[in-house]
Amino acid sequence: MAHYLGIDIGGTNIKAAVIAEDGGVQAFAERRWSGGDPSELVSVAVKLADVVIGQTDGVPIACGVGCAGIVAHKQGIVRRSPNLPTWRDVRLAEILGRKIALPMIVDNDANAAAYAEYMVGAARGATSAVVITLGTGMGAGIVLGGSLYRGKHGFAGEVGHMTVDMSSLTPCACGATGCLEPLVSAGSLVSRVLSGAERDEAESLTARDIGTRAAGGDTVALAAVEELGQALGVGLANITALLDPEIIVIGGGVAEAGRPLLDAARDELVRRTSRCREDLPRVVPATLGPAAGVVGAALLARDEFKR
Ligand SMILES: [Zn+2]
What is the Å distance from ligand 1's center to 137 Cα? Predict the structure, then answer.
């Protein structure tokens, strides 16, 4: 059976997986890296590729790579990446292809995650889907009629940088003000729950912890999750106004805050669109978890280089 290699480059971790033709994960490995240095990236990615290929029969047909940032997907170049600030115009497909010796495809990590949820996850069977990844930042991939929509310049799906408050002075990582991302990021959720002094002591507090607190009756945690859900719902209303997708999938670490988050987002979506619930996109949690990006990268390679 044909196999495909996927590599997912995050700011702190690199993941690799081999998948079968049907998207099933045959082998998976993950390793931390310091971020920023392309030569370290290549060395870690090659080692991980060797590990996962060694755990499966035969050699993969092709390799897909997902990376945060602006990716010129046809050229295989990572133009800029927020997690890898020293990177400019890194010819990733060429550099990795020299070492891994497989046909390579490179795409934005949110696109890769979206493709996985669309092919084998929560959006399977839909004709149009927007898959949002909510973590340190907010990204999305858009699938229309079975294909990723990347936009003319590769910026499509940058939903975190939709302006939602023209009068806001809150700076966003992109350099603008009034963006959605600072209102819905993991850091925003934690700062809604903890005071400044507490934040210093509780660096490891996760969205899942806050969701658990909310479910256990902690009113501060519940209010924080609901406020964040409301802000997310504003974004969903904007997405719906533009694309009217069949389904919107919410994944990433912040989504682990759980049901109150999606309930609040759905309520806000209904409130801001003068449509009844049946005429709105379904809003559902992602099903593939943190492996979505690496699986999606391999699936993109499958569909690009299928024999
Ligand atoms: Zn922004």
Answer: 9
Burial of 46 (0-12, 13-18, 19+ CB in 10 A): middle
- 307: pLDDT strictly greater than 70: no
Q: Tell me how far apart the alpha carbons of residues 119 and 126 are, in angstroms, rounded to a whole number.
A: 9
CA of 218 to the centre of ligand 1 (A): 31
Q: How far is the CA of 58 from the centre of ligand 1 (A)?
A: 44
Q: What is the CA(158)–ligand 1 centre distance, in A?
A: 9
Residues in a beta bridge with 16: 7, 29
Which CATH homologous superfamily contains domain 125-287? ATPase, nucleotide binding domain (3.30.420.40)
Distance 139 CA to ligand 1 centre (A): 11
The Cα 208–Cα 253 span in angstroms is: 8
Q: What's the 162 CA to ligand 1 centre distance in angstroms?
A: 7
Spacing, Cα 55 to ligand 1 middle (Å)? 41
d(CA 124, CA 119): 5
> What average pLDDT does range 4-17 have in this prediction?
94
Q: Which CATH number fits domain 3-113+290-305: 3.30.420.40, 3.30.1050.10, 3.90.770.10, 3.40.1190.10?
A: 3.30.420.40
Q: Take residue 302 and report the two structure tokens written for it.
A: 């499958």
Q: How far is the CA of 175 from the centre of ligand 1 (A)?
A: 6
**CA 63 / ligand 1 centre spacing (Å):** 31
**Taking the CB of residue 307, how many other CB atoms lie within 10 A of it?**
6
Q: What is the pLDDT of residues 175-226, one digit of tens each?
A: 999 999 999 998 899 988 986 556 665 567 888 888 888 888 899 999 999 9
Q: How confident is the model at residue 265 (pLDDT cuts 50, 70, 90)?
A: very high
- Average pLDDT of the chain? 92
Quick one: average pLDDT of 27-56?
93
